[in-house]
User: Which sequence fits this backbone?
């Protein structure tokens, strides 16, 4: 691990990675968290990608490429690695509030339109009978790979209670559509994810395709399917941490368990 630290120290220049103001921000939060500034900077970059709402870039090739940024924080035990995933969770909560405000505004506008021409009492009765919209968080915690692909797909239903709040009736928009095209993978312990992606397998192929296209096309007999119809892309950021000795076990092919 000391050799890895030496390599990082030899090539990592905060101002070159984050800019002058970004470096000041990263260093400040590093001091507050009592943790390294590079992992926090990578977490901030992941949040920025998730906050882009599916933005794409023309930097590579002739077609726009989707954005993605994944950072894994590898360090010794008891070095406050969790502060990075905690920071990421706080940022995800703030983005969720912005998305929910947009959803509520659209839903309210559709509800008001449906109530046009009704008496005041009838309009109030209609509005009182319909619950407010609830959304799925952009944050993706640990889970099965099928759960991950479903959450990263461009047709994951953002509105959790679409049927109860009569989303399609009041907004004339499909209830099973993704409303916000940014996702934030945030896993405090990434051992299971690494195990699932180890070697050459279908999950690794799916991840590679997602990084290249911003789309998930996944179909199984028992877990359903996702991402098979829409051509919209998703931008994803990812944050996780892992202990040194367990990461080393992955290199030689031994099974990994948290403990």
Assistant:
């Amino acid at each position: 691990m000391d050799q890895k630290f030496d390599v990082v120290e030899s090539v990592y220049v905060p101002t070159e990675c984050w800019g002058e103001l970004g470096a000041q921000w990263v260093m400040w939060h590093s001091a507050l968290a009592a943790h390294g500034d590079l992992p926090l900077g990578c977490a901030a970059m992941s949040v920025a990608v998730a906050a882009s709402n599916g933005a794409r870039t023309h930097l590579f090739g002739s077609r726009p490429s989707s954005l993605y940024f994944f950072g894994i924080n590898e360090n010794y035990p008891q070095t406050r690695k969790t502060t990075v995933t905690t920071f990421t969770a706080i940022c995800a909560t703030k983005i969720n509030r912005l998305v929910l405000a947009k959803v509520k505004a659209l839903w309210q506008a559709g509800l008001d339109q449906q109530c046009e021409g009704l008496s005041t009492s009838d309009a109030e009765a209609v509005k009182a009978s319909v619950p407010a919209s609830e959304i799925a968080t952009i944050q993706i915690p640990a889970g099965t790979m099928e759960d991950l692909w479903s959450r990263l797909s461009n047709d994951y239903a953002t509105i959790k209670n679409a049927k109860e709040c009569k989303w399609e009736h009041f907004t004339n928009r499909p209830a099973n559509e993704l409303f916000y095209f940014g996702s934030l993978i945030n896993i405090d312990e990434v051992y299971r994810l690494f195990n699932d992606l180890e070697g050459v397998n279908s999950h690794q192929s799916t991840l590679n395709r997602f990084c290249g296209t911003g789309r998930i096309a996944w179909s199984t007999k028992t877990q359903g399917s996702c991402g098979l119809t829409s051509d919209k892309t998703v931008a994803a950021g990812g944050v996780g941490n892992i202990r040194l000795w367990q990461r080393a076990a992955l290199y030689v092919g031994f099974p990994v368990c948290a403990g």
